[in-house]
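Lecture 7 notes: from sequence to structure.

We start with a single chain of 228 residues. Read the sequence below before looking at the structure.
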Amino acid sequence: MNLEVLTDADTVARQAASEIACFARSAVAERGQFLLAVSGGRTPWVMLKALTEEEIPWGNVHIFQVDERAAPDGHSDRNLTHLRASLAGAPIPESQIHAMNTAAQDLQASADQYCELLRTYAGVPPVLDLVHLGLGTDGHTASLVPNDAALSIEGSDVAITDVYQGRQRMTLTFPVLNRSRKILWVVTGAEKREMLSRLQSGDQTIPAGRIRRDDAIILADQAAAGTT
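Now the structure, written as tokens:
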């Protein structure tokens, strides 16, 4: 696990975009496609907007969601709403942005459908090229939050969580996250300092600590890294 500390959140976002673009070009050259899963958050939306300015073979890129809140389509709580807005300047076909359907009445059936979607594009079992993750102040990542039943799921790549901060979530699970070729952590803000330290130390008592450490990069700002 490699840590790179940058000045501020916007610099982290731009560096993350550059890293993703490099991975994309390599994956397309090697395998003909780039399978990226992204998380939500303010810095990631800046990251995705910056990604639209990078040199990327967009026609060979498929974007998946790491997690999503159960809310109506177009709602501001939905990661997808901000993801689409951030990528508005990218020439990626809409059909290659693969949304979690969390407006469905039967969330478990929707999760099962997303499992099948992953298999269609990423094989059996699915292997994503790059997963972008964030880090919560409680040590959660994706929507794998402390004490949730989804933490123990091993037989499915997509799960439905209990209510967390007012919403149920759909989330990728540890098996598919840990199967990915690369992990890119984006961690910003002084409030993340303690959990970033625990992530670096491999503390498996927090959900984020259960993510594979090899082929993992952390991009953090000085506030999160405690160097300000």
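DSSP finds seven helices and ten strands in the chain. Keep this in mind for problem set 3.
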